[in-house]
């Protein structure tokens, strides 16, 4: 190589990111990586929303079924969903389509979360992250299914609070906002333990720190379970609370185990 070639500025193709052997990146590279992951996740949601457009009629019928069943009761009260604005049907179509997109594309955006975390992990730890990806998707879908099974009881409870002689004429955007928030809250709650393990692998939190907060976490789980099962039935509340508590306990155990193995490796490296 000549001296001129050595002094020649690097071309565009030579700007490939050189990854640190331990997966460390600069702040600019982290931001660039985050933007790329967000774009991929957004593209997955949009493509899933296209499928949601074709499932719109079926989804509306399924989610409004608790209201329809309540309207057939012999209590003399009128119960129905009624649009009160010209643009509401289009708004509802977009919302439900995006919701379906989030559910269908959950493997994509959950993978992007872990793919963003993985560069900061050691080589041995990356295979654990891949396993957590496989676990987080079923957990998210299980949370959605749990909310769907509890929806009729929740609707029945809220409608039972109506004063005598009143009716339930609900705007669809209000009703479906409540339903979608309930679904997403239960789905995300199921994935939070997996995220805790990921944060532990990144070194942001230790297993002991998570364990020390168990009282507050259990209280939060109890409150979330009571809100998700507002019928006041203990069975419904514990049906949500017990799996979330067990998942939290499992996450704490995995974090403590990871911290113990990491301490052993560091001690061996210093010896």
TrEMBL record:
It is a multi-pass membrane protein. Residues 1-10 have a biased composition (Basic and acidic residues). GO terms for biological process: intracellular protein transmembrane transport; protein transport by the Tat complex. It comes from the Bacteria. The keyword Transport applies. GO terms for cellular component: TAT protein transport complex. The chain crosses the membrane at residues 38-56, 92-117, 129-155, 175-199, 211-229, 235-257. The keyword DNA damage does not apply. One of its GO terms (molecular function) is proton motive force dependent protein transmembrane transporter activity. HAMAP family: TatC. The Tat system comprises two distinct complexes: a TatABC complex, containing multiple copies of TatA, TatB and TatC subunits, and a separate TatA complex, containing only TatA subunits. Substrates initially bind to the TatABC complex, which probably triggers association of the separate TatA complex to form the active translocon. Belongs to the TatC family. This is Sec-independent protein translocase protein TatC. It comes from Nesterenkonia natronophila.
